[in-house]
Amino acid sequence: MIPINKKELTSIQILEAALRLFKNYGIEKTSLAMIAKEVGITKPSIYYHFSSKEELIEHSFNHILRNYKFSDFFHVNELNKENFGEKLYQFGLDFLPTTEDDNYELIKVLNEFTLLSNRNNNFKQRLVSVQFEFINGFRNILLKGIDEGVIKVSNVDNYAQLLALVIDNIARSIMIGFNIDYKEVWKETVNSLLKEEEKI
Q: Which of 24, 49, 64 represents a domain boundary (last residue)?
């Protein structure tokens, strides 16, 4: 592990404090003074690390996206003929923000950046690339399922998009407190891909 110096450590503390406050108060309502107080430094000290609130927001966005990769939640290499449906179902449940866990916090902050993306083309492009990463990840899962002989669908691209849309919308529904039986919805989605004898 590469040791980090005091400046880098403080920068990380500022980023993490900013993300906590963005989650609780929103990006617009979070001030640099609030972030400085959270870290235990003066507001002018922030400018030693970030030239403006906009730069801090940009770095916060990049920081959070490093922890939001398809492969962190859906492990294609763990799927095989015997476990395909169950594993895919479980990966989806583990991804969904069901409690105040790290993923809940992650998705809550990402929703803040989604709101900003209407006015910030860089955020919009990055979020679109994350969506494509999820679509491509699901595409690889479906191709593996076809190789294993457990998937009944042939239009892989459409079903990869369907999986990405369903999991994203279930996550958003949970975040806003929309009470649905998300486990059953995800199970039906997974089962719609599988051959009859492979259904869970």
A: 64
Residues of the chain short of pLDDT 70, as ranges, are: 1-4, 99-103
The Cα 156–Cα 163 span in angstroms is 10
Question: What's the pLDDT at 24?
Answer: 85
Q: What is the total count of domains within the chain? A: 2
Task: Provide the domain limits for residue 140.
Answer: 69-198
Rounded to an integer, what distance in angstroms lies between the CA atom of residue 51 and that of residue 152? 54
Half-sphere exposure (Cβ direction) of 23: Cα atoms closer than 13 Å: 19
Answer whether 12's CB lies under 8 Å from 102's CB.
no
The answer as to whether 26 is a domain residue is yes
Residue recorded with tokens 């279930």: 170
Q: Please indicate, yes or no, whether residues 49 and 73 belong to a single structural domain of this protein.
A: no
Q: What pLDDT, in 10s, does the model give residues 119-152?
A: 888 888 988 999 999 999 999 999 999 999 999 9
Instruction: For residue range 37-57, list pLDDT tens digits in order.
Output: 999 999 999 999 999 999 999
Instruction: List the CATH number of the domain containing 147.
Output: 1.10.357.10
